[in-house]
Amino acid sequence: MTPIISTMGLTKTFHRKGGEEVVAVSDLTMDVEPGSLTAFLGPNGAGKSTSLRMLTTLLPPTSGSATVCGFDITHQQADVRRSIGYIGQKNGAAQYYRVRDELVSQGAFYGLGRVERRRRADELMEILGLTDLATRTTMTLSGGQRRRVDIALGLVPAPRLLFLDEPSTGLDPQSRSHLWDHILTLRERYGMTLLLTTHYLDEADRFAERVMIVDQGRLIADDTSARLKAELAGDRVLVTVAGTGPDDGALATLRRVAARGDDVEHAPVAAPEGAAVRYAVVVDQGDRVLPGLLADLAAGGHRVLAAELHQPTLDDVFLRLTGRSLREEQATTGTDTPAQPALTPGGPQ
Ligand SMILES: Nc1ncnc2c1ncn2[C@@H]1O[C@H](COP(=O)(O)OP(=O)(O)OP(=O)(O)O)[C@@H](O)[C@H]1O
């Protein structure tokens, strides 16, 4: 299938005052299939928006090339713009216009006939849950409602490909969830290709078929969320065993199931039953490994007080790749799962 987006070595360098050079996007090479939903995931300043701005012809690349809907982003800018929708971080519909009027005049801007522009406005309001707000001015809407108006405006020309820059940033969890329902409905209805940026791990995980993790201008991982988690993070098994310190036999048993040479970590913990040690090990397919592991520990005379299996998140993937947590870098998303207890890598002691 011919890719709808194809980039080759796309790079953008900014020069800040004082001569400092910032490589915002470095050597981005990728193909995007038509009809797919791809998320660019990364911390603030990773280069996500700059990538989108180049692909939508808002910023010229410093080097490299790309085609979007078959058109060159440098030499066929008007054709690219005619083929895509772009919803930036701060689109902001005009404050004083009514929602429906705004959509209808956007239709006029794109050259739709009188009847067609009204039909399109009504259809988009219906899909995006805006019908009841048709006569409200944008300035009176909530953040989530306004974001939906932004998206409706971007969809007026019926693009084959829609770029969304952080569609849900700043919205409360309920509005985010509604917005996603609408985005998925749109996709189903029009079979659009969607490329969006987000720093919400859960959104990329749940909704995108393909996750491209970017950090410091570079693409550091590119796959389905499930494969990234399985291949780069693995499942984490935590077992709490009675004892006053790490036990060589228990460590040896746990090491046998460790994936990819990962070592076993351990830390003393207080348990109601007395002193205990919690061991942690990364394994492949934890649900298969755990029963045998517990049986082996019991056979070795170790009293297991608790066992937990943690499926990895995309944050574990990011941590593995960069040594940093994406979650710590995103301020207040409300999407966190509890942090792992601190454990020290251990060898026989
Ligand atoms: N016009 C500009 N002039 C100078 N530096 C810029 C400019 N635009 C972006 N940058 C820098 O380029 C880097 C990438 O920025 P970009 O906005 O693409 O990141 P991002 O991943 O979209 O971040 P966020 O999640 O905060 O939107 C950052 O270091 C940023 O400060």
From TrEMBL:
GO molecular function: ATP binding; ATP hydrolysis activity
Keywords: ATP-binding, Nucleotide-binding
SUPFAM superfamilies xrefs: P-loop containing nucleoside triphosphate hydrolases
Xref: Gene3D superfamilies: P-loop containing nucleotide triphosphate hydrolases
Disordered as annotated region, ranges: 328-349
Matching SMART domains: AAA
Domain ABC transporter: start-end pairs: 5-241
Pfam families (alphabetical): ABC_tran
InterPro entries in the cross-refs: AAA+_ATPase, ABC_transporter-like_ATP-bd, ABC_transporter-like_CS, P-loop_NTPase
Transmembrane region(s): none
Keyword rRNA processing belongs to the record: no
The name this protein goes by in its record: ABC-2 type transport system ATP-binding protein
Native source organism of the sequence: Georgenia satyanarayanai
